[in-house]
């Protein structure tokens, strides 16, 4: 009987969440939508309270096993460092963290690997918060900069790193070009992103289309790429030495979605901290998290990993395009 009440209560909460979700539609408009959304999510503190300093999925191992929600997120960063071969790089390696969020990845790379990290985000409040969260002496700094038009000169960083920022980019080719442009010759690009399945041969079907539409509109996403298409675009910059290496970490990251919802239940302190409006805001995100779980579980979405090394003889995207090397 007790469990029936609990299940009934949870179903009622879900129904309320769906109602709020339906009554407060959202859509992506421009990069301002992204900046404003993250400013708002930083200011209210709810995202940071539940997701911690990492606004990305956790890594639960292969095969996935039960793990603390926040530990899985930190583990994700270490797994990505190892997958990218960054653990073999010396202390002092310079890293650009594109779409840095609250800077969790950059701080781990600075503190655990001795790297010098620079993080960029579109949200001024997020950049400020990332700097505030960084203790004195940790070699990580954060600023506002647009990934599609970065202020850094060509060939600036040993490593370019980006986690779950790609779906916010309206121009994926420019995103790839800019990251490869600021990478030093011989440097390593490592990217982790939400993708949709490659729909070039088999278009999205009757249920995939509306679900994808919701996933885009809800969290300021103009479009998801596919693992296949984005790896082609990285190669099309003409700056890659050899192959773009990819991997699919959908299984390793999948538990994150239901865990995110579970956090709301097992950490009732959030209710006291953020009050009724915080409760309503959190409840509103539940349908999107469930849709994400469905989409990643059913193969509509895939968690893509990308690694590329920059050619050591071509210095700019323009040179790669024209085939003329200025500094031979
Ligand atoms: C889902 S969060 C991921 C944050 C961080 N990588 C992490 O894993 O914690 C996406 C981030 O991408 C940033 N972003 C989106 N579009 C951007 C752009 N054009 N230039 C710079 N940052 C951008 C957002 O501001 C946000 O910090």
Question: In words, what does this structure look like?
Answer:
The chain has 328 residues and is an alpha/beta fold. The chain has a single domain (2-313), classed as Vaccinia Virus protein VP39 (Rossmann fold, 3-Layer(aba) Sandwich). It is built from 13 helices and seven strands. A seven-stranded mixed β-sheet has the order 3-2-1-4-5-7-6, sandwiched between helices. Strand 1, helix 5 (104-113) and strand 2 form a beta-alpha-beta unit. Helix 2 (31-44) packs across helix 6 and helix 4 (69-83) crosses helix 5. The longest helix has 29 residues, at 269-297. The termini are far apart. It binds S-adenosylmethionine (SAM).
CATH class: Alpha Beta
Based on the structure given, which CATH architecture is correct? 3-Layer(aba) Sandwich
Major β-sheet strand ordering: 3-2-1-4-5-7-6
Q: How many structural domains can be distinguished in the coordinates?
A: 1
Which residue ranges are poorly predicted, with pLDDT under 50 across at least 5 consecutive positions? none
Mean pLDDT: 91
Discrete helix count = 13
Task: Please report which band the strand proportion falls in: under 5%, 5-15%, 15-25%, 25-35%, 35-45% or over 45%.
Answer: 15-25%
Q: Can you tell me the CATH topology?
A: Rossmann fold
Q: Helix/strand/pairing class, anyone?
A: alpha/beta
Q: What share of the residues lie within helices?
A: 40-55%
How would you sum up this structure in a few lines?
Helices cover 48% and strands 15% of the residues.
């Amino acid at each position: 009987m007790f469990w029936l009440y609990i299940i009934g209560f949870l179903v009622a909460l879900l129904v309320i969440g769906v109602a709020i979700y339906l009554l407060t539609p959202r859509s992506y408009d421009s990069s301002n939508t992204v900046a404003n959304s993250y400013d708002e999510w930083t200011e209210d503190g709810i995202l940071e309270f539940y997701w911690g300093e990492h606004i990305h999925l956790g890594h639960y191992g292969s095969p996935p096993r039960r793990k603390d929600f926040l530990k899985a997120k930190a583990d994700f960063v270490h797994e990505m460092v190892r997958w990218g071969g960054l653990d073999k790089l010396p202390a002092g390696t310079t890293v650009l963290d594109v779409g840095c969020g609250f800077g969790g990845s950059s701080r781990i790379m600075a503190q655990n690997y001795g790297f010098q990290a620079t993080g960029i985000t579109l949200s001024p409040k997020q950049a400020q918060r990332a700097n505030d969260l960084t203790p004195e002496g940790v070699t990580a700094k954060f600023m506002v900069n647009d990934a599609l038009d970065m202020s850094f000169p060509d060939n600036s960083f040993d490593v370019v790193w980006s986690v779950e920022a790609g779906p916010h980019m309206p121009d994926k080719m420019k995103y790839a070009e800019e990251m490869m442009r600021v990478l030093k010759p011989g440097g390593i690009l490592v990217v982790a992103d939400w993708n949709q399945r490659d729909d070039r041969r088999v278009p999205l079907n009757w249920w995939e289309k509306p679900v994808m539409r919701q996933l885009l509109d809800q969290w300021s996403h103009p479009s998801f790429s596919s693992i296949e298409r984005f790896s082609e675009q990285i190669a099309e910059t003409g700056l890659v030495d050899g192959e773009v290496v990819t991997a699919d970490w959908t299984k390793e990251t999948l538990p994150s979605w239901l865990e995110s919802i579970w956090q709301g239940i097992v950490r009732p302190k959030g209710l006291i901290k953020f009050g009724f409006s915080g409760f309503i805001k959190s409840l509103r995100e539940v349908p999107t998290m469930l849709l994400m779980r469905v989409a990643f579980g059913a193969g509509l979405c895939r968690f893509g990993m990308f690694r590329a090394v920059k050619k050591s003889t071509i210095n700019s995207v323009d040179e790669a395009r024209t085939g003329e090397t200025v500094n031979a």
